[in-house]
Write a structure and sequence with these properties.
Number of strands of chain A: 10
Shape of chain A: elongated
Structural class of chain A: alpha+beta
Distance between the termini of chain A: 44 Å
Radius of gyration of chain A: 21 Å
Oligomer: homodimer
Chain lengths: 246, 246
DNA sequence: CAGTGGTCTAGACCACGGT
DNA sequence: CCGTGGTCTAGACCACTGA
């Protein structure tokens, strides 16, 4: 038995699935760091005691899921979470020269509170359980672009309590991973059109009643547990999204 | 050599790619009908003179692309194009009881015209080439939902000239395939927010200046040639879309 | 050059669906 | 029962990368 966790899950699943799960667990545990290579297919086949084709299929699954990346002649690498585009794919945030802008994330509010029934449902936790609430404003070039309200289960993210307000990063997901060890593997966004009101309108510098695109997102960890729920509001005039249908 | 077209493309490509292309061509030609099974993997391996694993990989590609569907114990089947949801996935069209509604497609205008430079670019044809212009209104329960302006290359779709106005189907893509033999394999949608004006506003029964979601779509055939370009406008209040990010 | 992933083969046995 | 796709093995050779 090698250094990797060889406790394969559920005996009834196909071998390649169990290998997949074992590798996914290794990535989630941080046994292999993001950007670093995992052992070669030959080596893994030996350690798991399975054929090379079986390991290849397991790895192919993880590549399709976006967790791993193959580079011929070099190895197979743990992908760095690339959620830079995940919000901004919906909006046109570009400088006059067409270059992409990474909007600054300004923390407006932070507190620990009890989960409302709605939030509890989204996060799949008890109603009334402790959650961290964050209120942020995304600003580029001095112009407000998006307001975000977001909630995290406190038991998973209590390490954030020790971060000073000024030390928060623009991008939260890499920060979650670095500070709390929880990587975001996937997310589901639900888009609707709404109207800006009250504080949200004021912070976006829009008239009350202006159309805004509302994006409700649930973000999931490597084990499929909800890690975060957020509601983002952005000026609908800037909305722009491309999707491929099959 | 069997009944399938065994002229495999480009000698330098991997075998499984060439098999994939050959199978895709068979589907495009209509050698195998939608909904019907293709020959078994064993049989195909024999006819192509390759190993079973190679055929399996080729088929896996086509399954991932949505052209084929595997059913264990039964066979591998040509998927019926399911574009029923492709537009409606963006909007909430539901009856009071929550059931999905298939809005009726009302043909308002039809003519053959010369492609503007813009349309020509989208359809990848000569500017000034003949195109079919269609103007449609989607109506559910008497309420207008979406207006559509769409253009088709006349040389591919001239068979539509012989269809009477009253005989147009609600769903165009199956009709394209039935009447003209051109199946839509995929499409790319680009969504932005706009304002309803003039005729569009009137037909949607919205005040001029009301926010509308604008969906610009290019639809492609099995050979990747653009078949249709359309601009659809829908009441932004009804907009609702869910997307999974990885 | 050695080591990696990429392609391809030839076979075995299992799980499922219909006769 | 047979024929289908699903899993798994063991091994070959190719293509790419970097020392």
């Amino acid at each position: 038995m090698g250094s990797i966790s060889t406790h394969m899950t559920d005996e009834r699943l196909p071998l390649y699935q169990r290998v997949r799960d074992s590798l996914a667990a290794g990535i989630a545990d941080g046994a292999w760091k993001a950007g670093a290579p995992i052992p070669s297919e030959q080596k893994l086949a030996g350690e798991f005691g399975v054929a090379l084709g079986t390991v290849r299929r397991a790895i192919t699954e993880l590549v399709d899921e976006g967790l791993l990346e193959r580079r011929q002649g070099k190895g197979t690498f743990v992908r760095t979470a690339e959620f830079r585009n995940s919000l901004f794919r919906f909006f046109r945030f570009r400088a006059d020269d067409g270059a992409e802008i990474l909007p600054e994330g300004r923390l407006l509010e932070r507190r620990v509170e009890k989960a409302s029934p709605e939030i509890a449902q989204y996060l799949d936790i008890r109603s009334g359980a402790r959650v961290i609430y964050l209120h942020r404003l995304r600003v580029a070039d001095g112009a407000p672009l998006v307001v975000e309200h977001l909630w995290l289960p406190h038991d998973l993210f209590n390490a954030l309590d020790r971060i000073a307000d000024a030390d928060w990063d623009d991008l939260l997901y890499p920060m979650y991973e670095r500070v709390c060890g929880h990587a975001v593997a996937r997310a589901r966004d639900h888009l609707t059109l709404g109207r800006a009101t009250g504080n949200d309108a004021r912070q976006l510098k829009l008239k009350s009643g202006s159309p805004v695109v509302q994006i409700e997102r649930t973000a999931y960890g490597l084990n499929d547990r909800p890690l975060e729920w957020r509601r983002s509001l952005g000026n609908a005039e800037l909305f722009s999204y491309t999707v491929d249908l099959k």
